[in-house]
Amino acid sequence: MTKDIKSPIVDVSTIGGNMNLSRLISILHNQKNSYMNVQLKEFGLSHGQAITLKIIYEENNIKQEDLNKRLQIDKSAVTRILKTLEDKGFIIKKTSKEDKRNHVLSLTSKGKELYPKIKDVINKSDNLINGIFIVDLLDKGYLDKYMDCLSDNKIYIGCPTIIKKKYLTEYEQFLCILDNFITYTINSFSNIELIYIILPLCIANDKNNIFLTKKYFYDNSNITYFNKEFNKLIIENFYNNCLVLRNELDNLFMAVGFDLDNIDKDNYNDLLKMVNLLEEICFVNRGKYGIIALFEKINDNNYNMFFMQYELLFTMYKKKWHFVMEYRNFKESSI
Predict the structure, then answer these.
(1) Which secondary structure element, helix H or strand E, spans residue 65, and what is its range?
(2) Do the Cβ atoms of 174 and 146 come closer than 8 Å?
(3) Alpha-carbon gap, residue 182 to 179, rounded angstroms
(4) What is the reported pLDDT for 148?
(5) Which residues of 161-180 are buried (b: 16+ CB within 10 A; e: fewer)?
(6) Which of 52-61, 64-73, 95-104, 220-229 has the lowest mean pLDDT?
C-alpha cells in the first residue's frame, strides 16, 4: 500500500516490439490533429496558426525570435503564419525598440476576441498528458485484457459527426473512450500525481468492459451512460471499502452526510455524489499517502491499515467542514 508517487512520464524509446502500442500512439496523434483542423476551419485557421495565436496571447509583446524557439519549426514557416494572422487582422507586428532587426508581437482586439474560442479547441484536443498516461498503462500491462479484443472492424456512427468516414475502427473507439475517461478523471480530481496512481485501479474495476462498448462517445444520447460508467469505475473500491468498514466508522460517515443505507450504486445522482465526496476528501487531505487507500481494495491483510487511514481521512474531512462548504461555493461560482 505504500507506493512512491512518481511523475507520469514514460520514456517511449524503451518500449519496443509492440505493434499495437505504436499503432495506438499513431492513431492518438492523428485523431488530435484531425479534430483540431475540423474545429479550426470555422475560424479560417490552421493548427499552427492557432497555436501561434495562443502563444502571442499568453506572452504579449513576445519577440519573433522567441516565438521561433517556442514553435520549433522553420523560420520561413513562422513568417508565413505571422503574415496570415496579420492579414486577417488578428495580430500586430512592430519593430522592437531594443533591436531594430527584431519584431514584437501582440494581439489586436479582434485577436483577443477570438482567443477564448481558439483556447477551447486547443484544450480539448491537447491530450499530450493523456497520451503519456495511455503509453504508460500499455507499457505496464494494465490494458492487456483489451488488446487481444481489438481489430480494424468498423463501428459505424449513427448520429451527426465531424468524422467524414462515419465510422471508427475498434482501435479508434477504444482510444476515444479511454482518452475521455482519463480527461474525465483529471477534471474530477485535478491532481495529476494522484491520477497517475489511481487510473490502473479504476480500470481494473471495468467488469462491464466499458472501454470495448460500441456506443459512440460523442453521441449526446450516450453522455449519461458514459458518465455513469466512468463514475462507477472511480467509486467502486471506495464504496465497497466503506461497506466493509461501516460497523466501525458509520457514525463518522453519517457525521459528514454519507449515509450508506440511502446510497444506490446504480443511481446516476448517487454515483456523482460519491465522486464529489471522494474529490473533496482528497482535496482536504492532499499530500497525504492515505488517500490512495480510497481507491485500493480492502482485504484481510490490509484491513487494520485501511481502517486507520479511512478514520484519519474522514476525521480531517469532518474537521475541515467549514472549509469544505467554502470550497463547494467556490466551485459552483466558477462554473
Answers:
(1) helix 64-71
(2) yes
(3) 5
(4) 87
(5) eeeeeeebbbbbbbbbbbbb
(6) 64-73
Task: Output the nine-digit C-alpha cell for 142.
Answer: 494494465
User: Rounded to 5 degrees, what are φ and ψ at 180?
Assistant: -70, -30
Nearest to 281 by CA among 243, 259, 312: 312
Q: How far apart are CA 200 and CA 112, in angstroms?
A: 40
Strand partners, 196: none
- The rounded distance, in Å, linking the Cα atoms of 165 and 188 is 33
State the pLDDT at residue 317: 95
Interstrand relation of 91-95 and 103-107 (parallel, antiparallel or unpaired) = antiparallel
Is the alpha carbon torsion for 263, 264, 268, 272 positive or negative?
A: positive
Indicate yes or no: pTM above 0.70.
no
Query: Which amino acid is present at 90?
Result: F
Tell me how crowded residue 158 is: count the other CB atoms within 10 A of its CB.
Answer: 12
pLDDT at 31: 66
pLDDT for 238: 98
Query: 151 in helix, strand or coil?
Result: coil
- Average pLDDT (81-89) is 93
Tell me how far the alpha carbon of residue 161 is from its chain's centroid.
22
Residue 178 pLDDT greater than 60, yes or no: yes
Please give the Cα distance from 227 to 238 (Å, whole number).
17
Those residues with Cβ within 8 angstroms of residue 250's Cβ, 6 or more apart along the chain or in another chain: 260
330 vs 332: CA distance, rounded Å: 5
